[in-house]
Amino acid sequence: MVLPWLDSSARYGNTPSLQEARRFCRQLARSHYENFLVTTFFLPSHLRQHFYNIYAYCRISDDLGDRSGDPQLALALLRRWEEELQACFRGQGRHPVFVALQETIGAYQIPIQPFADLLEAFRRDQVKRRYRTYEELLDYCRYSANPVGRLVLYLGGYRDPERQLLSDHTCTALQLANHWQDIHGDLTQLDRVYLPSEDMQQFSYEEDDLRAQRCDERFVRLMQLEIGRARELFYKGLKLSDTIDPRLALDIELFGRCGLELLKQIEAVHYDIFRRRPTLSKWTRIRLLASCWRTQHSRKTLF
Question: What is the distance between the alpha carbons of residues 150 and 171, in angstroms, rounded to a whole number?
């Protein structure tokens, strides 16, 4: 399933044209989001394709790690993908994602590090399946999530540490929210537990309880702790939207608001993510988009 995405020759024969590459990324981005909109119509038009290009890179990188079905195969695929990334930075991109990314990287002078950091996270997923402390989990998020926000900031022309830190708060919180949404699937399908074992021990909740899908008082208290941490990070990160171009700020704030809503959905099912996996409906996303627009419009003139 993942190999056709990695080997563009199966579809294009030779290196695709820039137009073909752009279309590939655009179609992938528009068809794969679940909880979060990749872009909105408020985003400046000159940034939309670049958002699609970055999303396509992140999406395929993630799938190469998670959908191969074998850790050794995943590591091999990720090594090959990293070789393609390095070729891209030499101006020799061949896969449609990297043909499109060359334009983005050149236009905004984006360094290779955030792209490489994401691959480090997906490699870690193949060899590290448990986390002892919350600090260990945060270090994982530094690679798996925070680079995405920094890439978005580069598109807005922002490179300063202050904004990057605010972005890191939101991205880490989004990663945590997704982990808490997918606790059951991560364990049963990927044999991964992102709940820190130290936290589980604090509430006398064992991995056997997790496998048995026990949503009792111990699990509720554990989830309240983890959701509280994520919510605090989201609120810290929301300050970023006050410091950037209002048209970009709307999309940035939407990421945070969607994440906060996902935490509410987990609470709404009384933390029993085993029986019902919380997600954001299309109408919920539209409602949040409208709310973010009203907030941004009351602060600044968007148009």
Answer: 9
